[in-house]
Amino acid sequence: MQVQISARELEDCLIYIHKAVVRTKSVISSSIGIQFLFKDGILRLYSSNGVQPCEVTFGAIACSNFSCVLEFSVLYKIVSLSESGMLELTFESDSLSIVSGKNEYNLVYLTERDYSLLINDIRVEDTPIIEIPIAELRKAVLFLSICIPSSAMYSHFRGVNFDGNLAATNTHGFAYYTMNLTIAEPLFISIESFNLLAGMEIADGTILLYKNGNCVIASVGRARYLISLMANAFPKYDRIVQRLQKHTHTVSIPKDLFLKACKKLSSFVDADRKNAVFITITSEEMSLAARAETRKGKEVIAVETENISNEVSFSVNLVDILGYATRVSDTTIRLSFNDTIDDYAIRDGGAWYIDRTLTI
Question: Of 50, 152, 161, 328, which is least packed with CB atoms within 10 Å of its CB?
């Protein structure tokens, strides 16, 4: 069977699969295959990185029913680097011949497998449960990332909770990103799937999520992905929001000065003492002091305060508060806490972090 296909249109389809493939280890990605499925005059492409099966619809094409599996990495390189406008594909019984201008390639089919079974037989409702702007996901992924656990000990928290807004926790810090969308049932999305969705092209506009039982299908552009949900439920965070509402003191800090102060003090903290930096706030100034075994340092920043008349002091983890502050989009960091100073919050518009203060 021989067909002619636009190189750029085929590349557009392969990019959706490539976004999933590049998130796997190189030793795994090199063995990932892509299935060409010609059926009823429609060409669809299927693949899986072991976590997210993917279906991409190329569209109508004059062809017979046929299926084969090729090495994705090799095919993607050939197509994406092609200088020819059209590709001539000849599907033989055991191999594919590709002609691009004067260049020729031959790819032997991989061992028989059917990626389409991973996603094609899943039936979902006609109406999506939610439509999510990709541009907002792009902003949210960096903000939430610092509160995604890296330790295998907390692997059951390695996801992002979506209940119309987004939330993540590493058990001591909590991140919340406001999206103000409406969804009937919260979804606890694995971090792998969340990063994949956030990495979609902004030009695709939005992602539609469809649910059927424990399965979620994400539809974006030409592609559909099977999305992994966490096996456990995200912890209820009503009490955290209630604590935040009780924060009566707010300090407005110039972001650039705060980041410079924290970075300079990073050489003066001791991991054995929880990377502690001692913060003292008066009505007009904030001082940050740190001490290691052989050295100590102190930084003083002019700030604006609300409802602070007496001196206030507490300790925080420098690594954590620096990470939070770095992700604030505004030029001003707003630090808030209550009278007992059990915790503090870093606010960025409708998004915020909340963390515990330290007891050394």
Answer: 152
In the chain (360 residues long), the average pLDDT of successive 10-residue segments reads 92 94 64 91 91 92 90 93 91 91 91 81 78 94 91 83 94 93 92 92 93 85 90 89 91 96 93 89 94 90 90 94 95 94 93 88
How much is the pLDDT for 26? 54
Tell me how far apart the alpha carbons of residues 154 and 230 are, in angstroms, rounded to a whole number. Answer: 12
pLDDT digits (tens, 9 = 90+) for 274-326: 899 999 999 899 999 998 888 899 999 999 998 888 899 999 999 999 999 99
Q: Can you tell me the distance from the alpha carbon of 306 to that of 109, in angstroms, rounded to the nearest whole number?
A: 68
Q: Does domain 130-227 have CATH number 3.10.150.10?
A: yes
Pairing of strands 249-254, 351-356: unpaired
Q: Are 197 and 137 in contact (CB under 8 A)?
A: yes
CATH code for residues 239-356: 3.10.150.10
Q: Are 32 and 49 in contact (CB under 8 A)?
A: yes
Kindly report the pTM of this predicted structure: 0.87
Classify domain 2-118 at the CATH class level: alpha beta
| Rg, Å, the chain Cα set | 26
How would you class 210 by CB atoms within 10 Å of its CB: exposed for 0-12, middle for 13-18, buried for 19 or more?
A: buried
First to last CA, the chain: 73
Give the Cα-Cα-Cα angle 94, 9, 72 (nearest 5 degrees): 40
**Do 245 and 338 touch, CB atoms closer than 8 A?**
no
Residue from 234, 314, 232 nearest 277 by CA: 314
Alpha-carbon distance of 111 to 107, in angstroms, equals: 13
Give the amino acid at 284: E
How far is 192 from 190, CA to CA, in rounded Å? 5
Q: In degrees rounded to 5, what are phi and psi of residue 200?
A: -65, 160
Between the alpha carbon of residue 184 and those of residues 130, 181, 187, 226, the distances in Å are 9, 10, 10, 20
